[in-house]
Automatic annotation (TrEMBL):
Belongs to the binding-protein-dependent transport system permease family. The chain crosses the membrane at residues 21-46, 96-121, 133-153, 165-182, 217-238, 273-294. It is a multi-pass membrane protein. InterPro entries: BP-dependent_transpt_permease (IPR050366), MetI-like (IPR000515), MetI-like_sf (IPR035906), OppC_N (IPR025966). GO terms for cellular component: plasma membrane. The keyword Transmembrane applies. Residues 94-294 form the ABC transmembrane type-1 domain. This is ABC transporter permease. Coiled coil: none annotated.
Length: 306
């Protein structure tokens, strides 16, 4: 199939029609796209590099936004306690928050979909073990599981490696806390699909179970997974910000959105409100736009709604 026919099918699809006729979805997509592009292009559009310690000047610390009385046009949104430009820190910090969110969601999808397929197709004792583990994990909040895993990992790692591996530990901790919803959803869909005629026919011709799961069942259970992933992305970003705010996520020298909010919280009541307000506003807008896109996608893919 050539690209022209693919574009023609997409242009005439019900999904694109629903998107174009949903103002909330369009605005949310544009807002999320603006934040994502700002994060991706941060080295090109950021006025300063917050990672370059040689360029920081403590005399520029706690400068208010440019429109304030003591503000400077050199720092449009002001500076933090280290003299870092807030706008540049937000752009670079959004990269880290998005990276952690996307990577942890991808990890949750791979783990949850794999276990859900195995559980739904195999059934029996394997299904019972996987679902009991999922039930136990569901009894604890995701943030508590992420805190526990992060604490255990930091306790097992040498102190000199903790900061260098903190990003990977954070991705693993958030990812392992969110696989259950994918596994339970895929398990239910797999139990329905495995009894259909095309799966029975594949079994009769001697196709291996792994091939049946990969070629036939997996493509038919990815619709709900896509919706869950869209909503889970916002949760993962907020979880990263929460862990960084609590001081167990990204190191303080790395300007993620949660770290910036935590730093600004110490100065909030002394008048330097911009240090935490602007990163917090960015976090809220990003999570809200992704959540609204997830709600639209859920309604658009549900044939019972409309």
């Amino acid at each position: 199939m050539d690209s022209t026919s693919t574009w023609a099918r997409l242009r005439n699809s019900d999904l694109l029609y629903s998107f174009c006729h949903s103002p909330m979805a369009v605005v949310s997509a544009l807002l999320a796209l603006a934040i994502i592009l700002g994060a991706v292009c941060a080295p090109l559009i950021a006025p300063h590099n917050p990672f370059d310690l040689a360029s920081l000047n403590l005399l520029d610390a706690n400068n208010p936004p440019a429109w304030a009385d003591d503000g400077s046009t050199q720092f449009l949104l002001g500076t933090d306690d280290q003299g870092r430009d807030i706008l540049s820190a937000i752009l670079y910090g959004s990269r880290i928050s998005l990276l952690v969110g996307l990577a942890s969601v991808l990890f949750s999808i791979v783990l949850g979909v794999t276990l859900g397929l195995i559980s739904g197709y195999a059934g029996g004792r394997i299904d019972g073990v996987i679902m009991r583990i999922a039930d136990v994990q569901l009894s604890f909040p995701a943030i508590l599981i992420a805190l526990l895993i992060d604490g255990i990992a930091r306790g097992l790692m040498p102190r000199d490696l903790q900061d260098r591996l903190s990003l990977y530990v954070l991705i693993f901790a958030i990812g392992i806390s969110g696989w259950v919803q994918y596994a339970r959803t895929v398990r239910g869909a797999t139990m329905v699909e495995r009894n259909k005629e095309y799966v029975q026919a594949a079994r009769l011709i001697g196709m291996r179970p792994f091939t049946i799961l990969r070629r036939h069942i997996l493509p038919n259970v990815l619709g709900p997974v896509l919706v869950i992933a869209t909503i889970h992305l916002a949760v993962a970003i907020i979880t990263e910000a929460t862990l960084s705010f609590l001081g167990v996520g990204i190191p303080p020298t790395t300007p993620s959105l949660g770290t910036l909010i935590r730093i600004g919280n110490s100065y909030l009541f002394s008048g330097e409100w911009w240090i935490s307000i602007f990163p917090g506003l960015t976090l809220v807008l990003l999570a809200l736009s992704v959540n609204l896109l997830g709600d639209w996608l859920r309604d658009a893919l549900n044939p019972r709604l409309g």
